[in-house]
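[Meeting: bench + compute handoff]

Bench side (C.D.) handed over the final construct sequence. Compute side (W.E.) agreed to return the predicted structure before the next meeting so the bench team could plan truncations. Sequence as handed over:
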Amino acid sequence: MRSLATAARLTVAALAALTLLASSRSQSTPSQPQQPPGAWNAAPPPSTAMAPSAAAGLWRTTFGAVKIEEDGASGVHGAWLYEREGREIVGYFGGALDGNVLRFTWREPAQAQPGEPQLGGEGWLVFEANAGKFSGRWWTHNRDRQGDWTGERGAPLGAAAPAPTPGFGDATYGGAAYGAGPF
């Protein structure tokens, strides 16, 4: 009788241990809702080592010409320029680099204009420094607009920058009038 009771207790203890083990494994990998590719909140891939200087320079992008400059030890900022309805639109972005991944905030137009709404939001870019390109995502603060942002080098490294392009109020592209500081 004693051995039967001992065997029953051991069986119950073994089942409890197996249940705890299975429970701990399922809790260690909580299920995260999968985001569709291209969703505004899709996370960038893990970063790899890259010097901030590798992001600096001129780029041709899906939002027109972009110039990026280093901003401190791990930051960059930049401005983009494109034409819409016969007007040049200048936007500004800036953020911190974690290796080759830039997490940024942006605004467009770069400088608020009387009577015009100013859009703003966030995003991320992943630089492929050796390939001379980047890709990423952007979205507005209220998440009503989102999209992809890709770019490739607009001029070889070390090449002279093109002459400044006039912008709003005849200030030069990327100038202090756009809130981006001198380029």
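W.E. noted at the follow-up: The first helix runs from residue 2 to 28. C.D. will use this when planning the next construct.
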